[in-house]
């Protein structure tokens, strides 16, 4: 019962975590094959994933388009979400002509590096004179033709209408991408201050609209220095399940003790009757050596000068491995008729009751056991008593 309930709880927790991690509405992230990633605060086709006035769209060439309220649409070349900047250019490949009427009014963007450029229209010999007077003049090819040449120069280097024979077209304020830019064909760089997601992205989080709000932002999934959330869930489940099982076992043990104590209180006489079981341990019998009279009863031979024995090969004591010498005493073990030095075999037989060679027990031998030794040690005291 406890196991089935525990498994059901684990299943519910795992299913809830899976639902929590997968229940996210998909948002358009690019214009088809475009490599540009569309993220918050931008949104494609006015979807509910972005911030107001950060609307993007896709043209027929699958290019991402940002439309400024008073300046029209521009191709989005790149977006740096951490720096909150966007790079734009003209879809018609003639950005200088678009800059003549360029304004950021009504948009959430600003120009971080604004610079003023002057456009002039030069014809015939006036072109050479203007270039001689202003070496930094650059031709704007998309606005020029065979009869005249349109050129641009940074306004601080422009000498004024009287310094050359060219006609001044106008002065434009350009949000250049870099401080060193002098060619108007390069991308323009815009920045935004709100919504401010720099700190959220710097911490590895995801910036987006707070649930139920269309203007308040929230930072979620912030990367921490500790364990990831999935690892924490795994540790909680891995430690929680054994802890629950241990708690169940402890509760069962305590309930058993309480139940046993209650039975003892209800039936004290039955519980106090103790049955004793008699266990009979068999007495061990350890075979030890022979007693001295038995050893002395074995035949003893004094070896003569010829050192002749019944078996010619028996000329060495198997115990000490020394050759027999004249006048040495040898002892024979009955039944097997093996010869040994009397001193060697006597010491052996006091600890063992078998022949050192064949391990046979001589007939009529009396073994000394611990019980016999104990009885012999107790007999004098019992007699005196």
TrEMBL record:
Membrane spanning residue stretches: 233-261
Residues annotated as signal peptide: 1-23
Pathway participation: Protein modification; protein ubiquitination
Keywords, alphabetical: Membrane, Metal-binding, Signal, Transferase, Transmembrane, Transmembrane helix, Ubl conjugation pathway, Zinc, Zinc-finger
UniProt xrefs under CDD domains: RING-H2_EL5-like
Pfam families referenced in this protein's UniProt entry, alphabetically: GUB_WAK_bind, zf-RING_2
Biased composition (Low complexity): 369-385
Subcellular location(s) of the protein: Membrane
Region annotation Disordered: where it falls in the sequence: 366-385
RING-type domain ranges (all copies): 317-359
GO CC terms of this entry: membrane
UniProt topology in membrane: Single-pass membrane protein
EC number(s) given by UniProt: 2.3.2.27
Coiled coil: none
Catalysed reaction equations from the record: S-ubiquitinyl-[E2 ubiquitin-conjugating enzyme]-L-cysteine + [acceptor protein]-L-lysine = [E2 ubiquitin-conjugating enzyme]-L-cysteine + N(6)-ubiquitinyl-[acceptor protein]-L-lysine
Protein family per UniProt: Belongs to the RING-type zinc finger family. ATL subfamily.
Protein name as it appears in the record: RING-type E3 ubiquitin transferase
UniProt source species: Rhodamnia argentea
């Amino acid at each position: 019962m406890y196991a089935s309930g525990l498994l059901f709880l684990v299943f519910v927790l795992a299913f809830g975590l899976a639902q929590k991690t997968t229940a996210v509405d998909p948002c358009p992230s690019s214009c088809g094959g475009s490599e540009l990633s569309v993220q918050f605060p931008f949104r494609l086709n006015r979807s509910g994933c972005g911030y107001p006035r950060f609307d993007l769209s896709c043209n027929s060439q699958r290019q991402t388009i940002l439309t400024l309220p008073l300046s029209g649409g521009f191709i989005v070349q790149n977006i740096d979400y951490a720096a909150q900047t966007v790079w734009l250019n003209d879809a018609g490949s003639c950005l200088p002509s678009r800059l003549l009427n360029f304004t950021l009014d009504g948009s959430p963007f600003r120009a971080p590096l604004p610079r003023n450029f002057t456009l002039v229209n030069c014809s015939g010999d006036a072109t050479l004179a203007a270039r001689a007077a202003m070496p930094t003049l650059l031709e704007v090819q998309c606005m020029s033709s065979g009869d005249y040449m349109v050129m641009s120069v940074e306004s601080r280097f422009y000498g004024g209408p009287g310094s050359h024979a060219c006609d001044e077209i106008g002065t434009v304020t350009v949000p250049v991408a870099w401080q060193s830019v002098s060619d108007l064909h390069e991308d323009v760089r815009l920045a935004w201050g709100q919504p401010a997601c720099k700190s959220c992205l710097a911490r590895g989080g995801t910036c987006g609209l707070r649930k139920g709000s269309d203007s308040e932002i929230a930072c979620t999934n912030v990367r921490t220095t500790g364990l990831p959330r999935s690892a924490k869930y795994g540790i909680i489940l891995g430690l929680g399940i054994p802890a629950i099982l241990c708690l169940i076992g402890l509760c069962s043990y305590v309930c058993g003790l309480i139940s046993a104590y209650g039975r003892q209180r209800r039936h004290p006489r039955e519980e106090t009757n103790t049955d004793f079981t008699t266990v009979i341990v068999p007495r061990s019998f350890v075979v030890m050596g022979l007693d001295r009279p038995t050893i002395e009863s074995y035949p003893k031979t004094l070896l003569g000068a010829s050192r002749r024995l019944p078996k010619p090969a028996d000329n060495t004591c198997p115990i000490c491995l020394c050759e027999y010498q004249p006048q040495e005493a040898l002892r024979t073990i009955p039944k097997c008729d093996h010869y040994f030095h009397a001193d060697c075999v006597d010491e052996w037989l006091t600890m063992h009751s078998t022949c050192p060679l064949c391990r046979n027990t001589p007939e009529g031998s009396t073994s000394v056991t611990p019980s016999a030794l104990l009885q012999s040690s107790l007999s004098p005291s019992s007699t005196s008593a």
